[in-house]
Amino acid sequence: MSPINLAIVGVGKIVRDQHLPSIAKNPNFELVATASRHGTVEGINSYTTIEAMLDAEPSIDAVSLCMPPQYRYEAAYKALVAGKHVFLEKPPGATLSEVADLEALANKQGASLFASWHSRYAPAVEAAKAFLASTTIKSVHVIWKEDVRHWHPNQEWIWQAGGLGVFDPGINALSIVTHILPRQVFITGAVLEFPENRDAPIAADIHFRDADGLPVHAEFDWRQTGKQSWDIVAETAAGQMVLSEGGAKLSIDGTLTFAEPEQEYPSLYRRFAEIIKAGKSDVDLAPLRHVADAFMLGKRKFVDAFHD
Amino acid sequence: MSPINLAIVGVGKIVRDQHLPSIAKNPNFELVATASRHGTVEGINSYTTIEAMLDAEPSIDAVSLCMPPQYRYEAAYKALVAGKHVFLEKPPGATLSEVADLEALANKQGASLFASWHSRYAPAVEAAKAFLASTTIKSVHVIWKEDVRHWHPNQEWIWQAGGLGVFDPGINALSIVTHILPRQVFITGAVLEFPENRDAPIAADIHFRDADGLPVHAEFDWRQTGKQSWDIVAETAAGQMVLSEGGAKLSIDGTLTFAEPEQEYPSLYRRFAEIIKAGKSDVDLAPLRHVADAFMLGKRKFVDAFHD
């Protein structure tokens, strides 16, 4: 088929680092326009609002929405009403309800909505899922600890109410956990640590279980200096599984069994082309639902102020 | 058909005030057993745990779960695995994920799961829905203000993390709003007020909108002494609609157009019998989803300590 004419809304760091190289390498897509308050892409028609872009560029088939989640609904709604397919960067919205609303609209419009979870496409995730399906799991420990000053320097929106705080990286862990475990889990208790000068948590300690009583413990922390940790460890009847480096590497009892180069965003665009071709949507709200559950159920604790 | 043999788990105030009289008047049900740590019902076999009750009383067809939401999943799971139909008092659980899990289990077991929202069965709710469907709505204002010391004296669980605080009554308003409005709404901003000595909010101020931009403003407050307010006010092209007293009365431009005696719990048990007969479930998570969204998106504010 002829390429899908794609537009990007919200040109920032993630777009330059991940979206643009992935789109450039994928023959299914042709980037035709961008809309962003400040960012532009050299050689591509640029607009400052999505309305102006949709008006001026009727050839657009699909849009990727990469602005902060607080502003995503409005743009997604306008794009879907205009009959465009929509790729939502993670998290897919500021609330569960607005994403449910967009999903219903996409179905009505016959457009494809993709709520993307990039970490699910990390190299070793499918191998981890297959391993866990082949054995009995005794417990799971998720350790997701990174240095927010390094990864999100001066990004004010992540600290605002609705910006999710440490759940911004933590939701990546949750997107993997919900994909690789054999049964759904649910939260039984959580403690969320809020810096006294911020509206979003800097750390979270969460206990889950599934219907069979499998204990799952997740620790998210944004104050980690030195070595960064993005690990999922499962104790199983067939040994200890370690899915490390955000899903890049898989080890069983200390032996590396799977490692391939990272291909997350190229995989996301392959998936987006696939669902557009198939005329369907891909919207799994489980990771965001766990975050909302953690905020609803969790105990709040106040810790030292955080300054960038 | 012969009566449905019913058991109640968690015998407290709401059971004595509402469930028992409603069950006694409904020929579709026969109360055969209770399980509760402390409460019993005169003349009915009583047990201290649901496990002991299910073991000893194989004739049970259905159970009503009326304990605090933090403990509901475990009991619902056991009942569904035993093939019993399950009635969940509101809110249906401590997390959205656990209720989604129960719904999947009920479908698998061929049992009926009823996530009940008693306020949806308030007398004037259907009349309000019909009125709103007949006109154009300009704005909606929800005022749900009551005295927690009067309605929940010394109920510690409502103040614990996961106890929902002022959302315990507020979710009743949300269950009505989500039922009577023509389109789904979603939260755009919220402020939650936490007493400095409690883990659950005592007040919440929430702004919603729908896809057409309809503004919906909800104020929940547990510090209201004197006159209590459970009102939903809609400004419409056909005048001002006031659904008052928790859904009991409907007025248009000051003229009372609908008022009938309260029949919420009798209606809930009629509905429960109906879905059991039809072999289906009735699980609408929208009210709880809005509460989770409010906790996730809302700004936290600290207010004076609360003492019972």
From TrEMBL, chains A, B:
<dbReference type="InterPro" id="IPR036291">
    <property type="entry name" value="NAD(P)-bd_dom_sf"/>
</dbReference>
<dbReference type="InterPro" id="IPR000683">
    <property type="entry name" value="Gfo/Idh/MocA-like_OxRdtase_N"/>
</dbReference>
<protein>
    <submittedName>
        <fullName>Gfo/Idh/MocA family oxidoreductase</fullName>
    </submittedName>
</protein>
<dbReference type="InterPro" id="IPR050463">
    <property type="entry name" value="Gfo/Idh/MocA_oxidrdct_glycsds"/>
</dbReference>
<feature type="domain" description="Gfo/Idh/MocA-like oxidoreductase N-terminal">
    <location>
        <begin position="4"/>
        <end position="113"/>
    </location>
</feature>
<dbReference type="Pfam" id="PF01408">
    <property type="entry name" value="GFO_IDH_MocA"/>
</dbReference>
